[in-house]
Amino acid sequence: MDDSLYQDADQTDEPEIKMPVQTELLEILACPDCTGHLQAGDSELICADCKRKFQIQNDIPLLYPKNQDISGFREKILLAEIEKQSRTGEQAEYDAIQWKQSKQEFWKIVQKKIGKPPKRILYIGAGYDPGFQPFQENGHLFINLDLVSDKLETLKNEHKAEYCIAGDMHALPFQKQCFDAFIIIDLLQYERDLKSILQNMMHFLKPEGQFFLRAINAWALFRFFKPIVMPRMMYSLIHKIHDRYKKKHHWRYRYQFPTSYWNIRQHLAQLGCSNIQVFPIDSYPGLNQINRTIYHLLSLIKAVPIYLNYHYMLSAENNHNSSFNEVLKRVNSFDFDNAKKPS
Fold first, then answer.
1. pLDDT band with cut points at 50, 70 and 90 for residue 170
2. How far apart are CA 131 and CA 103, in angstroms?
3. What is the dihedral of CA 242, 247, 252, 258, to 10 degrees?
4. What is the model's pLDDT at position 182?
5. Are strands 141-146 and 179-185 parallel, antiparallel or unpaired?
6. Minimal CA–CA distance to 191: which of 172, 169, 165, 164?
7. Phi and psi (nearest 5°) for 20?
8. Alpha helix segments (H runs only) across 85-193
């Protein structure tokens, strides 16, 4: 980290030290272990409570918890290298187009519903996705979070991302109720305890904050029989055998189990979310041209692109504790000094 001093044009006699992270980012960061406030050191961040120090690498704070899953972390790094490798061939090119269009459809929905800037937005599992760009350009404080810092460096160097944090979604390094919106793409299928992970996320979302999700669909038209009929253990075993036969080194199939819109909707409703909406999707990754034609014809039925696509997309609003916060807001704004005393 560059610790060189610079001088303000109006204060040539008083040198000023460059902050290791942006001030607007520092004020919402928290220790992933004890949730204490983080303070800026010369080239690191220090927890005000437990005194733990966190490195900053290439302007990216590395805010991992002490109990970080090291084996999973290494596998994530390996997967990041695999993701860089481009497949060749006509089918691979067609798949790439479908994946790109699916992302574009998702981001259009988010842009339409996110509201006017400035909003604090957290993208969990950002990866190599430059979808943050229109939000950042419009004045939102958009934070990209990922476990693998190399992915975030790519976002910074190639796509000019301003705010990036390396951390774990299971121990989010932020102050409670500090975000206006959460964005999660294709992550929940790796989680065994969906309700717990969603409940933890809601702690960091403001009352009436927005939640945007895209996930792999258990009821996808050309694959629903796999996760619906098979137990999780059998499903994972078949994927493992398939990967060995194909000589793949794809760690996530050991954990992957698609979710459904109805399952996630139920969890979100139990957590106090409202206005839960699901959206139709046109693109369907992984299909050959024949199956794509079949899907296109079946999409004339309204429910198919909503509930039977490879992905499902939904949005929700966090209403948990919203009434309590409204009461608290009124109490804090009440003028007790000028209030009329009872006679």
1. very high
2. 8
3. -30
4. 96
5. unpaired
6. 169
7. -70, -25
8. 90-113, 133-137, 149-159
Per-residue tokens: 288: 């050959």
Give 10-34 pLDDT, tens digit per residue.
Answer: 444 444 445 678 999 999 999 999 9
Write down the pLDDT at residue 246. 60
Residue 199 gets which letter from DSSP? H
Look over the chain and give the mean of its residue pLDDT values, rounded to a whole number.
Answer: 83
CA-based nearest residue to 106, from 311, 317, 318:
311
d(CA 56, CA 165): 10
Cis peptide bond prior to 342, omega within 30° of 0 = no
Please say whether the beta carbons of 187 and 125 come within 8 A. yes
Question: DSSP strand E in 22-79: where?
Answer: 38-40, 44-47, 53-57, 60-63
The DSSP symbol for 342 reads P
* Burial class of residue 270 in the structure, from the number of CB atoms within 10 Å of its CB (0-12 exposed, 13-18 middle, 19+ buried): exposed
How far, CA to CA in Å, does 227 sit from each of 129, 168, 260? 27, 27, 10
Amino acid at 229: V
Taking alpha carbons only, the member of 305, 280, 278, 307 closest to residue 292 is 305
